[in-house]
Amino acid sequence: MRRTAARAGAHPVVDAPAPEPVAVPEQHAAPAPAAAPAPAPVAQPLRTEFPFELPRGYVDDSGTVHRDGVMRLATARDELIPLRDVRVQENPAYLSVVLLGRVITRLGTLAMVHDGVVENMFASDLAFLQDFYRQVNAEGHTRAAVQCPHCSEPFEVELGGSRLGES
């Protein structure tokens, strides 16, 4: 360090060595990790057919009891066409018989299901099918696929009651 004399009355000036340049590492902003894309929801295929089992069963002409069946979702056409049926126009209660005859696709080993089959069912089976029709078509299916939070095992749960208004 060197001192030099300055003008009179001035304080001595001290020359300090120039600081050596310090290499400063370039700081590049690291790109933020890209967020993992959210998994796309898995589309469930639309379920259009629903199996059922009648409480008593339909008894055909040969005495065979038919209990297991399949009902499909109703279309607007299924609900409109019976309204033109003379039997329905004369007796609106017959609407459910004609409608069920259109949407039941299988019943036991019967070759064909039609309104004549439905009108010869026991009253308890007819009531069951009317309720089942409402559940499937008006309210949607009330079972949901879920997964156990502990073991990840999939299973189904019933979300609603078996009758209107129950939960």
Describe this structure in words.
The structure is a single chain. With 167 residues, the protein is α+β, with helices and mostly antiparallel strands. The protein contains 5 helices and 7 strands; from the N terminus they run ββββαααβααββ. The chain has helices at residues 76-80, 86-90, 95-103, 115-119, 123-138; strands spanning 2-4, 13-15, 49-59, 65-72, 104-107, 143-147, 154-158. β6 and β7 (154-158) form a beta hairpin. The radius of gyration is 40 Å and the shape is elongated.
Radius of gyration: 40 Å
How confident is the prediction overall: mean pLDDT? 80
**Strand-pairing-aware structural class:** alpha+beta
Main β sheet profile? 3 strands, antiparallel
- Let me know the number of strands: 7
Residues in β-strands, percent: 15-25%
Low-confidence stretches: 161-167
Helix/strand order: EEEEHHHEHHEE
What are its keywords?
single chain; 167 residues; 3-stranded antiparallel sheet; two-stranded antiparallel ribbon
List the helices and strands and how they pair.
Elements: E1 2-4, E2 13-15, E3 49-59, E4 65-72, H1 76-80, H2 86-90, H3 95-103, E5 104-107, H4 115-119, H5 123-138, E6 143-147, E7 154-158
Antiparallel strand pairs: 1-2, 3-4, 4-5, 6-7
Brief characterization of the structure:
With 167 residues, the protein is of the alpha+beta class. The protein has helices at residues 76-80, 86-90, 95-103, 115-119, 123-138; strands at residues 2-4, 13-15, 49-59, 65-72, 104-107, 143-147, 154-158. Strand 3 and strand 4 form a beta hairpin.
